[in-house]
Design goal:
The chain has 123 residues and is α+β, with helices and mostly antiparallel strands. The protein contains four helices and two strands. The protein has two domains: 32 residues; 55 residues, Membrane-bound Lytic Murein Transglycosylase D, Chain A (Roll), CATH 3.10.350. The longest helix has 17 residues.
């Protein structure tokens, strides 16, 4: 073996550069949340989305309390939905009226039998 060599390493006296670790999505999210315009935009989008989905819809027809009730005898082939859609006020959603019929009669589900007498709320 040779005692001395003319070989010179290319790695001698080269400064070692460390790479910055890329920001994780959590750090990016934190920096965006800290900016005030982002929070304002998020708040506005939340308000628009809640109105768009109908979260603040108002049911017309005086949903305070029914003013009375009427009796209906269930006929063969009738469903709770059909009865609700036939007897509900014109400006009320069928689902809301159906729910009030269920509460008024103590029904747990949509099952009704022919000959049953249902009390229907009147507004």
């Amino acid at each position: 073996m040779l005692k001395y060599s003319t070989y010179r390493s290319i790695y001698e006296n080269v400064p070692v550069q460390t790479m910055k670790s890329p920001e994780t999505w959590i750090h990016q999210l934190k920096s965006r949340i800290e900016s005030i315009p982002f929070i304002k935009l998020l708040f506005i989008l939340l308000i628009v989305a809640s109105f768009w989905t109908g979260a603040y819809s108002v049911f017309a027809g005086g949903m305070d309390k029914p003013t009375g009730e009427k009796q209906v005898i269930v006929q063969y082939g009738d469903s709770l939905w059909r009865i609700a859609s036939l007897h509900k006020p014109a400006d009320m959603d069928t689902r809301v009226y159906l729910d009030s019929i269920r509460r008024m009669n103590g029904l747990k589900g949509p099952d009704i039998q022919a000959g049953e007498v249902l009390s229907l709320p009147v507004w």
